[in-house]
Fold these 4 entries.
Entry 1:
Amino acid sequence: MDTERLRPATQPAAGAAPIDWETISETIRGALRTGSGPIDPDEMAGLAETLRGHIALLLIEARQRASQLGRGTIEAQQAAMRLGSIERQFRRPPASLPLCAHVQVQRLAQDCQWLLARHAVEARS
C-alpha cells in the first residue's frame, strides 16, 4: 500500500498527539525492506519497539473512531476485528529467534501501515 498517496490534509484533533507521518512512513518502509540479508536480532528488536510506539499512538485515534461507528454494522465489526488483531500482535512479547523476530516486525509494520492509512482517510473526511 502506498501510504504517501494517503497523506492527510488535516492536523490531528485538538488535544491529540501529533502524527509524525514522515517518521512513521519511513519506519514502515525500513521494516518492510528487512530480511534480504542476514537478520540482525538487535535491529529487529529496535524496529519492533519503534513500531509498537507508532502503533500505540495510532491506536488511540483508531479506537475513538471505531467507537463512533454504528453498533452492529459490518463496518463496526470489521474495525473491531482488525483492531483486536492489531492489539494482540502489539501485546506479544518480543520474539527471540531471528526468523520469528523478522516475521513479527513484518506484521507490526503491516499493522502500522493499516492504521496510518486509516488515519489518513479518516482525517480527510
Entry 2:
Amino acid sequence: MTVEREEYGGPVGRTRSGNSDWLTGSRITAVHGVFYRPEGRAGEPEAVEFVIDQGQSVLLTCTSDWTLRITPGAWPLLPDWCVPANQWQHASLTQLPPVPYEGGWTVVGTLERRDGNGEVHEAVIRCEYGDFVVAAGDTLAVRFHPH
C-alpha cells in the first residue's frame, strides 16, 4: 500500500516504495466513513478512514477514474477536500463488526489489487479476525470478511 500526502499541485511525501505491508503490526481502533450529508447516509461513503492507535489514521478515497488513493488521514478532522465542511461528516459504518474486545484489530498484512494500468482499485487490510476490503468505484464499497 502506498501512502501519499495530498497538497496543492499533487501528491508529495511519504510514498512507501512498493512495500504494501507498511501497516502490518498496527492496531485499527475505529473505521469511519466520510459522508456528504445532503445526500443522506443511505449510500456508500466518499472515503473511509482507518483510525490507528497512537493517534494516526489512514484515508482511502476513490478518484474520478475509480481508482483508490491512500493517504494519511487527519482524524478527527475531516479531509481538506470536504468543502463546505458543514455538509460533510464522519460516521460509523453499520455493515462492519464492532471493535474486538481487545480494543482494536491487529493488522497482519495488506494487499493492493491493481487494474490493467497498474492503478490500485481495491485494498485489502488483513487482520487477525478478518479482512477489510475497500473497493473504488463511483463511491467506496467497504466490506469485512471474517476468518
Entry 3:
Amino acid sequence: MRAVLTAVIAAIEAAAVALAGFVLVAVPVVLVWWLTFELGADPSEVFDIAAAGWLLAHFVPLSLELSPEAALGFGLDPEALSFTLSLAPSA
C-alpha cells in the first residue's frame, strides 16, 4: 500500500512540475498576445506557440513550414520552405 501511495504522490508532483514549466513559457506568450495583438489572434494558435516553445525548451525538434507568401515576406524566393528547428544541449 505504501508503494502505491508513493507512486501516486510522485505522479502528482511530476504533473505539477510539468504544468509549472509550461506556465513559465505560456505567460510571456500570453502577455505578447495581449499587449501586441490586443487579444486579436486565435487563442488556439497562441496555445500552439506556447506548446511549441515548451517542447523546444525540452530539446524536441520542431518541423516548420513557411508558405510562399510568408517566405516572400522574409525576402526569400516565393516558394514553400520547410525546415527543422532544434536546440543543442549545452552540457
Entry 4:
Amino acid sequence: MEIIFSKDNDWLAKWDDFVQNENRASHLLLSDWNKAFQSYGFDFEIGLLVENDKIIGGFLR
C-alpha cells in the first residue's frame, strides 16, 4: 500500500471513476468540482491510497 499526492490528469480520471462507483462518495469529491475553485485562486491535489495500482481510498485537499 502507498499514499500518492498528485494533480496528474491520469490519476484524476482514475479518482473520478473511483468516486462515481463508490456508494459512500459524494459529487463534492469529483475533480471537476474542485477545479472550479481555481477561478477563485484556490489549488488542489488528490491524496490517494493505492494498493496494487488500484485506488482503495483517498481525499482532495
